[in-house]
Inverse folding.
């Protein structure tokens, strides 16, 4: 690979718009030379322990031989072919695996380009479901505040409308119904008052709704909150009572991150529609999927066709790597890996609980969160974390990690110690 030059970095700073950044006041970027296992090697020779799994996707680490082999093997046949009117073995095998590992009622699979697009497709499925039943009055979704479902227009409309990153678009987006996010923590004793606001909204507005959409158990980029499985169970019961479709966004939580293969399993419930992405290909390339019950797919298909068809739908290269990633998960090793990550994060982040800058420390499965009392300054904090030899990407008041599953105890301890030192400096 060619070396990144000073001129390259100057061009990057002047012309390339990185995610969630300003081109006039850019946050520092760090050139990458290579990545292996849980290590990111920078162009200047420094090596960082990766705490982000490349935004939660590289669960098996980088440069994994099994995933590499799958990519090499497929690219020698064909890297892409249109999915309209054609099919191929990698897509068939991937969909077969997805049907096998998801809860039994989910039987139909629609392959999408990315997590945001899969949410768009899920919303369109819900709309078409009711239109095909002859009900054209339903137009809204019910969800909770503090949520994040993606950056495309339809997905933005069901993200937190006030405190979320998409508040600038209020008045432009479709307006849906929101109730307060659950206040019951993952381990809290259940009380029916926790669900009262949701239940009232559903009873009052169910005739207007095409569905309910939630991130199960973990609200990701909206604040990294963990809520009670009982809340999700009651949501499912109320949706069934009122005949409302339940859409679960498992893009961040799917494939083992919370300690269950899918977070909905904590509550023992099955949605009508479910989205998955991020870790689907082990972080190798973009791919997502939308799954639904036979009731949803048959209702739509008996009257219409699903009105979505991405150019790169079912990309064979991505599907082949996704199959290899699911093969790794099928060994079951991930379960002990997540247990080890949870214990390591609890122990490693424990010192932060006593620091004055910290509001709360919380851990669930392979997710560790240090919530601060004040928002971070990314211009200073990001380089400081790199100086510690760790790659952590804070946002808002959160310094959080979702490490690759393969991270060993020593690497995890190093990662947590670096976070603790930086947060301690913020507390002085």
């Amino acid at each position: 690979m060619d070396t990144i030059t000073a001129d390259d970095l100057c061009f990057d700073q002047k012309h390339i718009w990185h995610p969630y950044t300003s081109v006039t006041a850019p946050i520092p970027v760090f050139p990458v030379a290579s990545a292996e296992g849980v290590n990111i090697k920078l162009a200047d020779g420094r090596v960082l322990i990766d705490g982000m799994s490349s935004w939660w996707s590289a669960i098996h680490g980088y440069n994994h031989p099994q995933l590499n082999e799958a990519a090499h093997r497929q690219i020698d046949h064909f890297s892409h072919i249109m999915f309209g009117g054609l099919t191929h073995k990698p897509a068939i095998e991937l969909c077969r695996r997805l049907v096998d590992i998801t809860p039994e009622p989910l039987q139909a699979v629609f392959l999408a380009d990315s997590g945001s697009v899969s949410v768009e497709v899920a919303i369109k499925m819900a709309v078409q479901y009711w239109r095909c039943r002859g009900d054209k009055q339903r137009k809204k979704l019910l969800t909770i505040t503090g949520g994040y479902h993606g950056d495309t227009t339809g997905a933005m409309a069901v993200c937190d409308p006030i405190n979320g990153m998409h508040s600038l678009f209020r008045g432009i987006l479709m307006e849906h119904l929101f109730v307060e996010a659950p206040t019951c923590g993952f381990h809290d004793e259940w009380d029916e008052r926790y669900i009262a606001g949701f239940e009232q909204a559903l009873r009052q507005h169910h005739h207007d709704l095409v569905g309910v959409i939630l991130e199960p158990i973990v609200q990701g980029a909206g604040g990294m909150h963990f809520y009670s499985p009982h809340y999700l169970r009651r949501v499912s019961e109320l949706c069934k009572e009122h005949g409302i479709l339940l859409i679960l966004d498992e893009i961040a939580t799917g494939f083992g991150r919370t300690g269950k293969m899918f977070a909905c399993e904590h509550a023992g419930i099955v949605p009508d529609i479910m989205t998955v992405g991020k870790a689907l290909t082990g972080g190798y390339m973009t791919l997502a999927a939308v799954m639904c019950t036979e009731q949803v797919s048959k209702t739509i298909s008996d009257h219409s066709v699903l009105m979505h068809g991405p150019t790169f739908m079912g990309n064979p290269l991505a599907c082949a790597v996704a199959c290899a990633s699911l093969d790794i998960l099928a060994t079951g090793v991930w379960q002990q890996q997540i247990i080890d990550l949870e214990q390591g994060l609890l122990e490693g982040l424990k010192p932060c609980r006593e620091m004055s800058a910290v509001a709360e420390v919380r851990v669930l499965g392979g997710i560790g969160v240090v919530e601060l009392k004040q928002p971070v300054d990314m211009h200073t904090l990001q380089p400081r974390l790199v100086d510690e030899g760790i790659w952590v990407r804070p946002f808002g008041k959160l310094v959080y990690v979702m490490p690759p599953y393969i991270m060993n105890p020593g690497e995890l301890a190093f990662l947590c110690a670096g976070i603790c030192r930086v947060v301690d400096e913020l507390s002085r």
Remarks:
- The first strand starts at residue 32 and ends at 36.
